[in-house]
Amino acid sequence: MTTLKGENIYLRALEQADLDFLYLLENDEKGWEVSNTTTPYSKHLLQQYLDQAHRDIYDVKQLRLVICTNNNETAIGFIDLYDFDPKHSRAGVGIVIFSEANKGKGYASEALRLVIRYAVQHLNIHQLYANITEDNQQSIRLFEKAGFVKNGIKKDWIKVGNTYKNELFYQLIPHVH
């Protein structure tokens, strides 16, 4: 079994055909809160990003993988390793499943397990972390189920409109061999 293939999903690199999918995701204002985005992305800018997507994680310090279902190879989301720090052997993890129809089916849990295994086996990761807003109960359950532990609260960290949200800091020191 490869590290990026699971029972129901597999993770693959970004491809040129993902442009429209990426465009919809990056321009969905509901996701801007967690991605620190404040303006839409043009297809031209996203095309430039795709053109550079082949670059090594050691160079660009991030890796975005597409989550696809095994049965029909449909792209259903992304999982990212970001702020990769090889000196300290750590990286952040972010995940998004696009449609409500694909949520609650275990795809995110499986993708998270696969990316943890990949990060440990191929990137020699010692720890992974996630930043999750306090009101995102679905993500909190997902990461806690995967073994992440809440180790801090960033008070009033995320501004949404005229209010602020606390952001929780979760860490995992995996013991995958």
UniProtKB/TrEMBL annotation:
<dbReference type="InterPro" id="IPR016181">
    <property type="entry name" value="Acyl_CoA_acyltransferase"/>
</dbReference>
<feature type="domain" description="N-acetyltransferase">
    <location>
        <begin position="9"/>
        <end position="171"/>
    </location>
</feature>
<protein>
    <submittedName>
        <fullName>GNAT family N-acetyltransferase</fullName>
    </submittedName>
</protein>
<dbReference type="InterPro" id="IPR000182">
    <property type="entry name" value="GNAT_dom"/>
</dbReference>
<dbReference type="GO" id="GO:0016747">
    <property type="term" value="F:acyltransferase activity, transferring groups other than amino-acyl groups"/>
</dbReference>
<dbReference type="Pfam" id="PF13302">
    <property type="entry name" value="Acetyltransf_3"/>
</dbReference>
<keyword id="KW-0808">Transferase</keyword>
